[in-house]
Design brief:
The complex is a heterodimer. Chain A has a single domain (3-210), classed as MetI-like (MetI-like fold, Orthogonal Bundle). Helices cover 83% and strands 0% of the residues of chain A. Chain A has helices at 3-39, 43-58, 61-74, 81-106, 110-118, 123-153, 165-176, 179-210. Chain A starts with a helix and ends with a helix. By secondary structure, chain B is of the alpha/beta class. In chain B, strands 8-9-10-3-11-12 form a six-stranded mixed β-sheet, with helices on both faces. Chain B has a four-stranded antiparallel β-sheet with strand order 2-1-4-5, covered by helices on one side. Chain B is globular. The chains are: A mainly alpha, B alpha/beta. Chain A binds chain B through residues 109, 111-112, 114-122, 125, 129-130, 133-134, 137, 211-213, and chain B through 52-54, 84, 88-89, 91-92, 94-96, 98, 100, 102-106, 115-116, 119-120, 148, 150, 161, 164-165, 168. Chain A: Residues 13-201 form the ABC transmembrane type-1 domain. Chain A: The chain crosses the membrane at residues 12-39, 51-71, 77-96, 138-160, 180-200. Chain A: Belongs to the binding-protein-dependent transport system permease family. HisMQ subfamily. Chain A: One of its GO terms (molecular function) is transmembrane transporter activity.
C-alpha cells in the first residue's frame, strides 16, 4: 500500500462525500415538501406524496439508479452519470427523511399550531416558522443516521459509472493484487467520514437543544 | 349603544352526533370583561374557541366589531364561507391566551412576542422587537426577554403568552382558563396582569373557574350548562341572588370549597 494508492482513494472519497452531501441536502428539501404535502390533508397532495415515499422506500436503490440511468435517455434526457447518481440518491433519501420527519411533525403539539392560527399566520408561515423547526429538532438524530446510511449507500453509484471510494478500491485491488490493505484503507476512510458526521450531528443536536430544551 | 364587540347569533356547534352548543345568543359589549362560567363539559371553552375560529360553528353567526367571522349567514340561513385572507384579518382583531400557554418552544420570549409582528404585520425586525419589549414590560418580564419558555415558570410563560397576544394590538382578548394549568401560588401574577388589562378598558372574554376573579373583575357573567346559555347578566345579579337552580347548585360547590369572596 503506497502513499500514491492511498491518495487515489482519498480523491475518490471526495466524490463520495460530494455526491452524498449534495444528495442529502436536495433530499432534505424534497422531504420537507413531501411533509408539507401530507400535512395539507388533501388527497390530491397526500396520495402522490405517499406513492412517492412507498416507491422509493420499496425499490432497491441499485435498481432505482439503473432505472434512472437507462430511463432518462429513452425519454430524451441524456444525463451524465453524476447527475443520475445525485438524482437517484436524492429521491431515495427524500423518501426516508420524509418518513423520519413524519413522526416529528405528528408530535408537534396542536396548541402551538392554534397559537399561530389565532395570530393570523398563513399555512405556509406556520409550516416554515413553527412546524418544521420543531419537527426537525424532534427528528434530528434520525436524520443524522439517515445521512450516514446515504453516505454508505453511495458506494452503489459506481453502477452508473462514478468512481467513488468502493469502485476505486475494487479497481486498485485488481490491478495491484493487494486487496486487503486497499479495502482496509477504504473502510478506514468511510469510518472516519461517518464518525465526523456523527460528531457534527451530536454537536448540532446539542446546540439545537440549548435553544429549546 | 354602538356595535357590540362580539355578537353571537343562534350559534350551534355539533361534534358528530353530540350537540356541544345549542342556540347561543350573546352580545359582548365593548370595553367590558365578560366571564364564561359553568361546569366542565358545559361548552364554555368550545364557545370561546368558536370566537377565535379554532372551531367552526355548525350554524349561526359570529360578528367581531360588526364583521362576520368565518361564515356569513343571511336572513334565510344561507351560509357562505369567507375567503381565507378575510378570515385571518378578522381573526387578528382578537388575541387569544390558552390554558396550556402554547408558547413556541424554539423561540425566546422576545421571539414569541415579536414573531407575528414580523410575519403577519411585516414590521421590520428591530421595530418588531422594540414593540415586543413594550408588551413584555407591560407583563413585567422585560428582563426575561432572552429566555426560552423552558427556562420560565408557568406563571411567567402565561404572562409571555399574554404579551404575545397583545403584540398585534387586538381589540378583544380571549382567555381560555388562563390559570387552570398553574400552581395556586402562580395564579395571582397572571390574574393581576389581567386586572391591569381590564382597567385599561380592554374588551375581554374569559373562560374561568376562578369565580372570585369573575365576581370582582367580570362585568358580564354568562353561565353555561350542557351547551345552553342559561343566564347572562351583571355579576351582582348572578351572584347575589342566583335564581336559576342549576346556577345555584354550581355556585354552591364553589362556596363549599371555600372559593368564595362574593358576599
Amino acid at each position: 500500500m503506497t502513499p500514491k494508492l492511498f491518495t487515489l482513494l482519498l480523491e475518490a472519497a471526495l466524490s463520495t462525500l460530494g455526491i452524498s452531501l449534495i444528495s442529502i441536502a436536495i433530499g432534505f428539501v424534497i422531504a420537507m415538501l413531501l411533509s408539507a404535502a401530507m400535512l395539507t390533508g388533501k388527497s390530491i397532495y397526500v396520495l402522490p406524496a405517499r406513492l412517492f415515499i412507498s416507491f422509493f422506500r420499496g425499490v432497491p436503490l441499485l435498481v432505482q439508479l439503473l432505472l434512472i440511468y437507462t430511463l432518462l435517455p429513452v425519454i430524451g434526457i441524456n444525463v451524465p452519470g453524476i447527475v443520475a447518481a445525485i438524482v437517484g440518491l436524492s429521491l431515495c433519501t427524500a423518501a426516508y427523511q420524509a418518513e423520519n420527519l413524519r413522526g416529528g411533525f405528528a408530535s408537534v403539539p396542536p396548541g402551538l399550531i392554534e397559537a399561530a392560527d389565532v395570530a393570523g399566520f398563513t399555512g405556509a408561515q406556520t409550516f416554515i416558522r413553527i412546524r418544521a423547526p420543531i419537527a426537525l429538532r424532534l427528528t434530528f438524530p434520525a436524520l443524522v443516521n439517515e445521512a450516514i446510511m446515504i453516505l454508505k449507500s453511495s458506494s452503489l453509484v459506481s453502477v452508473v459509472g462514478i468512481i467513488e471510494i468502493t469502485k476505486m478500491a475494487q479497481d486498485l485491488a485488481s490491478s495491484t493484487y493487494q486487496p486487503i490493505p486497499i479495502f482496509a484503507s477504504a473502510a478506514l476512510i468511510y469510518f472516519i467520514i461517518n464518525s465526523a458526521i456523527a460528531l457534527l450531528g451530536r454537536y448540532a443536536e446539542r446546540s439545537l437543544k440549548g435553544a429549546s430544551a | 349603544m354602538s356595535v357590540p364587540a362580539i355578537a353571537i347569533r343562534k350559534l350551534v356547534k355539533r361534534f358528530g352526533e353530540s350537540t356541544v352548543l345549542q342556540d347561543i345568543e350573546l352580545e359582548i359589549p365593548e370595553g367590558k370583561v365578560s366571564c364564561l362560567i359553568g361546569p366542565s363539559g358545559s361548552g364554555k371553552s368550545t364557545l370561546l374557541r368558536c370566537l377565535a375560529f379554532l372551531e367552526e360553528p355548525t350554524s349561526g353567526m359570529i360578528t367581531i366589531n360588526g364583521e362576520a367571522l368565518g361564515f356569513f349567514e343571511d336572513a334565510n340561513g344561507r351560509r357562505e364561507r369567507l375567503p381565507a385572507n378575510q378570515i385571518r384579518a378578522v381573526r387578528t382583531k382578537t388575541g387569544m391566551v390558552f390554558q396550556q400557554f402554547n408558547l413556541w418552544p424554539h423561540m425566546t420570549a422576545l421571539g414569541n412576542v415579536s414573531e407575528a409582528l414580523k410575519l403577519v404585520r411585516k414590521v421590520p425586525k428591530a421595530e418588531a422587537e422594540e414593540r415586543a419589549m413594550v408588551q413584555l414590560r407591560k407583563v413585567g418580564l422585560e428582563n426575561r426577554a432572552g429566555h426560552y419558555p423552558s427556562q420560565l415558570s408557568g406563571g411567567q410563560q402565561q404572562r409571555v403568552a399574554i404579551a404575545r397576544a397583545l403584540a398585534l394590538e387586538p381589540k378583544i382578548m380571549l382567555f381560555d382558563e388562563p390559570t387552570s394549568a398553574l400552581d395556586p401560588e402562580l395564579t395571582g401574577e397572571v390574574l393581576n396582569v389581567m386586572r391591569d388589562l381590564a382597567s385599561e378598558g380592554m374588551t375581554m372574554v374569559v373562560v374561568t373557574h376562578e369565580i372570585g376573579f369573575a365576581a370582582s373583575v367580570g362585568q358580564q357573567i354568562s353561565f353555561l350548562d350542557h351547551g345552553r346559555l342559561l343566564f347572562s347578566g351583571p355579576p351582582a345579579e348572578i351572584f347575589a341572588k342566583p335564581r336559576h337552580p342549576r346556577l345555584e347548585q354550581f355556585l354552591d360547590t364553589y362556596l363549599d370549597r371555600g372559593a368564595s369572596m362574593l358576599a
